[in-house]
Each structure stands twice: as C-alpha cells, then as structure tokens.
C-alpha cells in the first residue's frame, strides 16, 4: 500500500480508500482518523468478511480534516453520493411519490406537484400515493381559488393576462390593481384544504351544487359533484394515527443481497403515504443498525426533516446524527425507538411492509413455481441440456415488403424483460421475402452478442414455420453457433424443430404449460413487431419525398402512400392511376410523376 498510516492525524474527518486504479472504493468518517483507519489493518479474526475483502483492494488512502464529527458526517454522505463507492451501502429509491408544493415564500405563491422535497422555505404536503386524486384536487383548487399556475416572472402592468384569466381560472397577478392580501388569503384557504380542513369547503360546494340543481343547470351541478368527490378522496386516503404531530417511521429488513427500507409519512397525525427504498452494497456481515444509520444520513441530505423520527433499532452514533438533523432543520429533532403503544405498532407495521418488499424483490429475481413448471416441461419436450431460463423470440412485420421491422423479445425466468427488447429495421432485403428478413435479423443479433462477448440465450423461438426456422438456422450456422432453436406455427400451434424426420414437428395439447409459455413469447414478439412497424410506417407517412412537391399536403400524401405503399410504386404508376385517387387531379398527378422521375 502506498499510504503510510503513521501520517494519520488524531482529528475528525473523512477518509477515502482507493484501489490500484485510483478509484474510490470506500468512504468513511471518523472522530479520530488515526484510530479509525488503523482498525481496518488489525487481525483478520476481528474483521467482517466484507472488511477483509475491502482491505485486500486498498492501494491508497486520502483524508479530509473537518472541524467536527458532525461536519465529517455531512461530508461523508456527500462523497458517497458523488463517488458511489463499491463497498459503501448506496441508497436506491424505488419510487418517488408526488408532493404538493406551496411556494408560500414568494410574492404570489403557486401550488403544484413535485417529486422532490427540498429545504427551500416552501410548504410541502404529502407524499400522496393516489396521484390522480391529488391532481384532480389541484384542479379544483385552481377553479375555486383562481391561483396562478404559470412560472413566468410577475411584472404587473408589463405582461398581458393569459387565457386562464379570461376563463376565470386565475386572478392574474400580472395585471395591475390586484389585491395582494386577497390573493394570499386565497392561498391560505387552499392550504387549509390540503391540511384536511375540508368541512367548510364541502359545505360551500354542496350549497353551490344544490343551487345549480334547483335552477336546472344539471351540467354545472355535476361538475360540483365531481369536485366534492375529489375533495373527499383526498381525506379518505389518510390513515388516522395517534397524536397530531408530523413524523417519519422507518423500519428495515435485510437479506444477503440488500437492506430493504420502509418509510411511513405521518402528517398532522395522519399517515398520508409510504415509500420503499433499497440499500445496495449492504450485506448481513454488517449490522442492520449500521445500515439504518447510513440510510438516515443519506436520505435526509435533501429531504425535509420532521420533528420526530421513529426507528426500529437504536442507531450507532445517534447523538451525532441527531445533532446534524437539528442543525439542518433549525429545530429540535427526536430520533427514538418506541417501546409501547401506537407508535410501536406503526414501526411494526412498517417492518411488515419492509418484509413484503424483500419478498417481492425475491420473486422478481427468481422464477415462480408455475414458471419453473413450464420451463421444466419445455426442457423435457425439447430434450434440452439446461433449463431455458433465457429465451429470445423473433418476428417480422411489414406491408408488401415496405417499412419492414424485425423484433426480438427477451424472456427471463419465464417472464418478459421488456427493457431487453430490441427492434431491427430491415436493411439488406428488398421486396417481400420474410425468410431473408428473418435471416438478417438473427445474424445481426448474434453477431453483435459475439462481438460484445455478451451471454447467449438458452433457447431461440421463431414466429413461423419451417421456412423461417431454416433461414434463422442458416444465420446461426454461418456464425458457428449451436443454440437450440424452434418455431411456432400460428395455425395449429405446432412446434417446428431443426431436426429432420419424425421429430421435426412436436404437437402438444393446448393445456400444456410449455406450449402456453411458447405462445406467450410468440404473441409478445408479434405484438412488439407490429407496434414497431406501425411507428416506422407513421414516420414514413410524416417524412417522404412527397413533402417537397407543391400541392401535396399531409392528407394527399396519406392517400398516395396508403394506395401505393411506397415511393417506388408511385414513381412507376401512370397519370390515370394517380388521378383516380380522391383529391388528385390529372395536372397534380403529372407534377408528382415529373418530380419523382427527375
């Protein structure tokens, strides 16, 4: 190792461990850099397996001295976020639920949805798990309180009011003479609604609805009725809890791959939402308490801090963490483990949800029992050496040879992995030749895998009969590959193999789980091919040589391409054929042919 441990100071700070390539592989903080870093180089019997592996890869160490341990904690979190070291746990946010943001600190506040909570002086409500309901409620707020929605700079008298003002959806702060106090009063009324103080608003809406109904304005009454339902929907998605304070509830479970964190958000005594997080890089050799401490330090770097945080376990360095949270929030923050009552029940409920997240993550990474049954049946039917966990399916889509597209779908553990789907625009084949198109797509796919040294599939499924299968097999042979390949003919759902003789066609009952899986892959390949072809055909309708011909607009271009399929066929047609179409005169037909045959 390049670094001399004797040069370490006995001061608080952050240390960065690097490998031989100079990459940062671990970031840590210490009250005393000298004592903390030396602990990594003691006897292996006192170290966890992960730490032993880390030490093997350390080639150099850098350190940064800070004024206090709290400063070191902040710097540590920032550096982890920047370098993403291999041996640090890293926070993965599985989903960001929407919040409602009220820019109360601006002259004319706005109310809008956001996915990030920042310490910027604004008021935040949420997170909300029912995004549709909260969007509808914001629309109601816009109609009732007429608050501005635009982001433009407000300069009264210098900007013309937009359409929202004229349709009575905005008070138009950009217009001169607006009562600022009245505008802010309306903002605070909207805030009351978001806080759940809906009884007064519901009474007003109910009066309006009855007024419209009595005057037989049923359309307006129905609109108010929908507004009432939306306001009630926001109230109903809250879960009552003990107390009236704001708090976050944090629980965690772990397996050999990661730590799964569950956060409940309690606002004004009601649980308004939850979020799932995953700490990557953590393992069972580290304590769950240490992982939760890492989560708290990373999560609250850019998230608002409630007055109370309930946790499942006592956190290491809890005094330092609490001190840091107080500094960031500007008020007292309490972090504690509840021992009894409703708060303990909340933590236990969060722990059960974290356990469910872990279970769902396991289900995503391993095939289900039904999928295993189908894969095993397929293995037996096709006499495969291994279970076909990775299957790729191919199909071709075109109309009279135009805009031809080849699709490749990827199934992993019996399930579609849509992120690995690929589309291939046919480049070398002209005219109608499905066999040659299939050969081109298969050759391009597996030549690329060979070039990039990527893993090959366990089985290839071709949508088609013996002709398509033979063409695809010839491409594999030219690449020197021997991957099991079959086809699935649409008409009778017969399995076509590359073997000759009685085993060339395999007929399975429609109740067979193996056949159902193959049909699923075939149908998915067909769906993806058709949608890809449709996108390409739409693009050809939008951009073509016809665009530069005077008198040919989008409607006439569409008529021409729908009847002749391609520019080449239009070029080879006659004036009489073109002028027989709707909207095409003989004079325009001559212009089109003259332009295309230059």
Automatic annotation (TrEMBL):
Q: Does the keyword Ion transport apply?
A: no
Which ranges carry the GIY-YIG domain? 10-89
Gene3D superfamilies per the record?
5' to 3' exonuclease, C-terminal subdomain, GIY-YIG endonuclease, UVR domain, UvrC, RNAse H endonuclease domain
Q: What SMART domains has UniProt attached to this entry?
A: GIYc, HhH1
Would you identify the family this protein belongs to, as annotated?
Belongs to the UvrC family.
Question: Is this entry keyworded DNA repair?
Answer: yes
Q: Which GO terms describe its molecular function?
A: DNA binding; excinuclease ABC activity
Instruction: Supply the name of the protein.
Output: UvrABC system protein C
Q: Which Pfam family is one of this chain's hits?
A: UvrC_RNaseH_dom
Identify the InterPro entries for this entry.
GIY-YIG_endonuc, GIY-YIG_endonuc_sf, GIY-YIG_UvrC_Cho, Hlx-hairpin-Hlx_DNA-bd_motif, RuvA_2-like, UVR_dom, UVR_dom_sf, UvrABC_protein_C
Q: Which GO terms describe its cellular component?
A: cytoplasm; excinuclease repair complex
Main subcellular localisation: cytoplasm
On assembly, the entry states: Interacts with UvrB in an incision complex.
Q: Cellular location of this protein?
A: Cytoplasm
The protein's job, in short, is: The UvrABC repair system catalyzes the recognition and processing of DNA lesions. UvrC both incises the 5' and 3' sides of the lesion. The N-terminal half is responsible for the 3' incision and the C-terminal half is responsible for the 5' incision.
Q: List the HAMAP family.
A: UvrC
Q: Which UniProt keywords apply?
A: Cytoplasm, DNA damage, DNA excision, DNA repair, Excision nuclease, SOS response
Q: What residue stretches are annotated with the UVR domain?
A: 199-234
Query: Which ranges carry the UvrC family homology region profile domain?
Result: 249-476
Judging by the UniProt lineage, the source's domain of life is Archaea
């Amino acid at each position: 190792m390049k670094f001399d441990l004797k040069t370490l100071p006995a001061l608080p700070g952050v240390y960065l461990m690097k490998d031989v390539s100079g990459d940062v592989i671990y970031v840590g903080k210490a009250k005393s850099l000298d004592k903390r870093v030396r602990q990594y180089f003691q006897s292996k019997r006192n170290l966890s397996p992960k730490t032993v592996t880390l030490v093997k890869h350390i080639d150099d160490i850098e350190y940064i001295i800070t004024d206090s341990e709290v400063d070191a904690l902040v710097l540590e979190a920032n550096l982890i976020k920047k370098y993403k070291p291999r041996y640090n746990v890293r926070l993965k946010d599985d989903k960001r639920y929407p919040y409602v943001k009220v820019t109360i600190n601006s002259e004319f506040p706005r109310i809008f949805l956001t996915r990030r909570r920042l310490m910027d002086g604004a008021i935040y409500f949420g997170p909300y798990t029912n995004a549709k309901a909260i969007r509808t409620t914001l629309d109601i707020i816009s109609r009732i309180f007429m608050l501005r929605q635009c982001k433009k700079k407000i300069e009264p008298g210098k900007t013309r009011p937009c359409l929202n003002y004229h349709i009575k959806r905005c008070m138009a702060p950009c217009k001169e003479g607006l009562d600022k106090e009245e505008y802010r009063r309306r903002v605070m009324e909207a805030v009351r609604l978001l806080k759940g103080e809906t009884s007064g608003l519901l009474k007003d809406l109910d009066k309006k609805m009855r007024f419209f109904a009595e005057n037989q304005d049923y359309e307006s009454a129905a609109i108010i009725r929908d507004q009432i339902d939306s306001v009630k929907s926001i109230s109903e998605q809250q879960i009552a809890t003990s107390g009236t304070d704001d708090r976050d509830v944090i629980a965690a479970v772990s397996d050999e791959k990661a730590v799964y964190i569950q956060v409940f958000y309690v606002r004004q005594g009601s649980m308004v939402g939850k979020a799932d997080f995953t700490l990557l890089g953590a393992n069972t050799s580290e304590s769950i308490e240490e992982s939760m401490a890492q989560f708290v330090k990373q999560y609250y770097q850019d998230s608002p801090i409630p007055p109370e945080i309930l946790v499942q376990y006592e956190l290491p360095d809890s005094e330092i963490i609490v001190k840091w949270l107080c500094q960031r929030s500007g008020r007292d923050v309490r972090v504690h483990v509840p021992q009894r009552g409703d708060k303990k029940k909340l933590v236990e409920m969060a722990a059960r949800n974290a356990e469910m997240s872990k279970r769902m993550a396991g289900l995503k990474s391993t095939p289900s029992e039904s999928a295993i049954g189908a894969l095993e049946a397929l293995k037996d039917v096709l006499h495969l050496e291994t279970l076909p966990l990775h299957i790729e399916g191919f199909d071709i889509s075109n109309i009279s040879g135009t805009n031809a597209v080849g699709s490749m779908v990827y199934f992993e553990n019996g399930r579609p992995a849509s992120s690995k789907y690929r589309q291939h625009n046919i480049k070398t084949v002209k005219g109608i030749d499905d066999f040659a198109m299939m050969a081109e797509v298969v050759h391009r796919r597996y030549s690329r895998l060979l070039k990039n040294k990527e893993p090959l599939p366990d089985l290839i499924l071709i949508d088609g009969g013996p002709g398509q299968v033979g063409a695809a097999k010839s491409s594999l042979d030219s690449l020197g590959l021997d991957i099991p390949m079959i086809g699935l003919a649409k008409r009778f759902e017969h399995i076509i193999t590359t073997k000759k003789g009685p085993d060339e066609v395999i007929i399975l009952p429609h109740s067979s789980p193996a056949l159902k899986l193959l049909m699923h892959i075939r149908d998915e390949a067909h769906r993806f091919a058709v949608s890809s072809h449709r996108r390409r055909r739409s693009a050809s309708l939008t951009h073509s040589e016809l665009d530069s011909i005077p008198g040919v607009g989008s409607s006439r271009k569409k008529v021409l391409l729908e009847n002749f399929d391609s520019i080449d066929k239009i070029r080879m047609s006659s004036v009489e054929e073109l002028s027989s179409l709707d909207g095409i005169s003989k004079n325009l037909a001559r212009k089109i042919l003259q332009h295309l045959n230059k």
